[in-house]
Automatic annotation (TrEMBL):
SUPFAM superfamilies: Hermes dimerisation domain, Ribonuclease H-like. GO terms for molecular function: protein dimerization activity; zinc ion binding. InterPro entries: HATC_C_dom, RNaseH-like_sf, ZnF_BED_domain_contain. It comes from Rhizophagus clarus. This is HAT C-terminal dimerisation domain-containing protein.
Amino acid sequence: TGFLYKTQGEYQDNSSSDNEAKAEIIINTSEKKNSWVWPFYRQVQALNGDIITICEVEIDTGVKCNKRYKTKGSTGNLINHLLKHGITKDNPQPQKITKITSKPSVIPHEEKKQQELRQHLVNWLVCDSRPLSIVQNEFFHRFVDELDPRFNIPDVKLIKQIIHKAYNYAVPLLKEDLKNNAIKVSLTMDLWTSHNRKGYIGITCSYIDENFKLNEITLSIQYIAYPHTATHIRETVNSIIDYWELNEKVQSIVTDNAANIKKAVSGMANIDWQGCSSHTLQLVVGKSMKPCRALIARAKRLIQFFLQPKHSEQLEEVQKLYPNKSSVDPSQTSDYLIHCISDCITRWNSSYLAWTRLVQIKPYISLMINHLLLHNDSNIRKDGKQLRDIMLTESEWDLIIELLQVLGPIEEATTCLGGSKYTTHSLLYRLIESLKKRFKPNKNDRISNDKLDFNTEDDVFDEDNDFEFEFNNDENTQIQININTPLYELYEERKAFAENEKNENEKQTQTNNIIDKCSNTIINLLYVPSLIKSLDKEEAIQNEVNEYLDLPQIGLNNNSLVWWELHSTKFPILSELSRIYLAIPATSTPVSDCLAMLVIY
């Protein structure tokens, strides 16, 4: 026909010959048309009978726009196109400085090349979370036109069509991959509220395939109406699981410790709820830091002072005047200078990061106080007096440094458990054991924590609990903080394979207990007739477990999935179990990262 459908209502000439391109019937437009847009357009009829409206606006001397649209009476697309030329009903004069279309003298790419370039454009928009409206930007058009004037930039409608087409193409493939390569899957779930106060639910899926590769898929980020009750959340999650045909494969869902989410998952049949270990760590830290509320408030006030633009610039000026106080190069821009970081209660390890930066700028704060107090401007001298009044005492600085030594291991553990390129579940027990030993109280502790009990979930996760600490020292003695975290006790029931430093008798006893507990699980979850048929089930399981426990433990820097891939033939049953349980994320970080990228326009 000489035309291919480009967008909704838009046509592009892709004829193989000039004769075919000219095979159009000019329509008689002598009849009166009411809309103000028609003086800027002419109409022709294509061979297939479609009515094509062509823009007659002159974009350069002797050069017309010639943009083509399929119209059926509506003028909405025509009006929107004229806006690109700066033409409105009240201002009918075109603005020739805006060049939207490519040069008519340049022959566009063939459709195959156009599709390839459009796909690259869409990949960039999607993977980099760019707004689709960027393709309407005049300077984006100019930029692309300089790079490749033969490329016709698609509009938002066409981009949406490409995205939907790609989604509809990918979903069946992902479903098939999950069906064939995933023994079990683990989900992470979280709720998020946008700036317009609408709630969204995000769900990701992780599994280990037959090649022992950890895979992660975003199943859904969708609007969820209020109220966010446990029942409503459960129904929404079940509908997403049904859509992805994972009813028989989901073994666990990792979430934070919000009561409604936990209750929603706990009420789902044959699915285990797993609390986010990083969120649990942050809750424990928050409880344990309550004796330092006064210090936290004073440090936050000092940080807020330097977060103000005026005082931030004053801090930069001092750093440039006294470069020897640190490695700061005074010739560098402000990006290379040290600035404060806000302390936000909802951001993990926020206090640790904010206080670390505050300690770094401590030498400059004293210099800044003197610098401001000696200034000729009275308003600046007032800033110096304010800074002097809110400055921390030496004992408070010392206590912050001690607290950083406590919070440092927590920050390292949280960062490690939030990884996505390796199996975090295999690190969980060792990290918890390490933290337990690091913070184990001793007889010299000067804090009496008789009233503090974190051994129950109610105490740990209750945000309204307020614990009073008793100190066995006088008021002039510096408060010493030593976090006594019971996080390990909360996971006591999940540490079956965590303790390996046992003598031979204890190891044999432990092995027998594991065999008793695991036999039914292995048979129920992994009964593969071709594998078990030639082996005695009890003996095969016992031999594998015994041989596995006799091996030395690999280091934290080693990839456990690589190890299991290399030993899958030697441990056929345990390697299948590893694909199930190592896929469980230790935190809900995967879905949190997805929601963090969500922008509502």
